[in-house]
Specification:
- By secondary structure, the protein is mostly helical.
- It folds into 2 domains: about 1-70; about 70-135, no CATH class.
- It has 5 helices and no strands.
- It is flat.
Length: about 140
């Protein structure tokens, strides 16, 4: 223990103190972050205020789904499957590859990864966040 009851581990970076300029920059950065969050929250509030009447109409029409024939699910699933097959065909043409299996599995895995990544990052990929901050 050193004089005054302060040990070397109490100071940041093995005994080096943070410069006042660095602390000021960090404080400004934290302040700017809170301002950005407040602006985004306000924009979200305004957006919901404008869109809410339309959303209420959509949500109130939910009971009408009971009248939809479940057999409509068959053409919906067929159309979705056709869209995947068309995507794979386009990728086969673009990559000049003959087999379907590697194209299909790569596209499905990439799609699943991008959906998972988007969900875990709040809508924007991490590299886009880094670029927005000015990092390489």
């Amino acid at each position: 223990m050193e004089e005054g009851g302060v040990t070397a581990t109490d100071e940041p970076a093995a005994g080096r103190r943070e410069q006042p300029e660095v602390r000021a920059v960090k404080a400004r950065s934290a302040h700017a972050t809170w301002i950005k969050r407040a602006v985004v929250l306000a924009a979200t509030d305004i957006g919901l205020y404008v869109v809410w009447p339309s959303l209420a109409v959509v949500f109130s029409s939910g009971p009408q789904l009971k009248t939809v024939n479940p057999l409509w699910g068959v053409p919906i699933v067929a159309a979705e499957a056709a869209s995947f097959v068309c995507t794979w065909a386009l990728l086969r043409l673009a990559l000049d590859v003959k087999p379907w299996f590697p194209i299909a599995t790569a596209q499905l895995a990439g799609n699943a990864f991008s959906l998972r990544r988007r969900a875990s990052c709040g809508g924007r990929p991490p590299d886009a966040r880094r670029r927005a901050r000015g990092a390489p």
